Amino acid sequence: MRRTNLAVTLLLGLVLSGCVTTSDQPQRANDPDAARDAYIQLGLGYLQQGETESAKAPLSEALKIDPGSASANIALAMVFQREGEYESADKHFRAAQASDPNNPRILNNYGVFLLNQERYPEALEAFQKASQDNFYGERSRVFENLGLTYARMGQVEEAKASFERALRLNSRQPLALLEMAKIEFTAQNYVPAWEYYRNFTEYSGQDAESLWLGVRLARRFEDHNRAASYALQLRRLYPASAQAQALEASE
């Protein structure tokens, strides 16, 4: 699903910036901070290449140098999350948060983990705390994630308010645009739903769910070309989906 993919992309940008290499083992030498950061970079390099087993050793070395390193802990959390070792991932997310409890990036990414684990009240708490930092550079994503959490909890008005807040901060947030289109469509507010949807298509690819929404909205406005285009894509790309079956039943 698009939500999960976006969450993973967000997580991979978390820890350290700069060039990543897996070619040389760093040495502790006389600068433990530099050695710690080099081990973290090495671990991230393996993680980005999908080599989670190889990533664990350098990240563990980083924690030997600095047991309280939030960056090392959250990198290990991502490794274990990728491997499906959710208890270990949770342990390292918590350790990262304990080391830097007000860091909005850590809070947001731990919230994403909790959201994907369907631990909604905990995710809500993490996102709400992260949203309090007015200077966080990805604050729009926090409100987007907050909206997703409310939506999954069935709190539609709170979800709508969060998505609107996300879009005030960044009008090009595709997931917030799509979710607003779905909310307005369900409420039979078709004009704003169509506007949100068309803006969404400018910034994102489509999945079966969004294409089916596009078909129904285009039909509402008698935009036959768009309706046919979305229907064709849905049949071609997602022929076995529930949305494709609903399309066939509607014709």
Task: Show unreliable segments.
Answer: 1-24
Strand content: under 5%
Determine the number of helices (DSSP H or I, runs of at least 4 residues): 14
Number of strands: 0
Instruction: Name the shape in a single word.
Output: elongated
Estimated radius of gyration = 21 Å
N-to-C CA distance: 26 Å
Main beta-sheet annotation: none
Can you write the helix and strand succession as a string? HHHHHHHHHHHHHH
What do these coordinates show?
Pfam families: TPR_12 (PF13424), TPR_8 (PF13181). Keywords: Repeat, Signal, TPR repeat. It comes from Halopseudomonas pelagia. This protein has 14 helices and no strands. It has 251 residues and is mostly helical. 74% of the residues lie in helices and 0% in strands. The longest helix is centred in the first third of the chain and has 17 residues, at 32-48. It is elongated, with a radius of gyration of 21 Å.
Quick summary:
It contains 14 helices and no strands. The protein is mostly helical and 251 residues long.
Helix-strand layout with pairing:
Elements: H1 2-12, H2 32-48, H3 52-65, H4 70-83, H5 86-99, H6 104-116, H7 120-130, H8 139-152, H9 156-169, H10 174-186, H11 190-203, H12 208-220, H13 224-237, H14 242-250
Helix pairs in contact: 1-6, 2-3, 2-4, 3-4, 4-5, 5-6, 6-7, 6-8, 7-8, 8-9, 9-10, 10-11, 11-12, 12-13, 12-14
Question: Top keywords for this entry?
Answer:
251 residues, mainly alpha, 14 helices, disordered N terminus
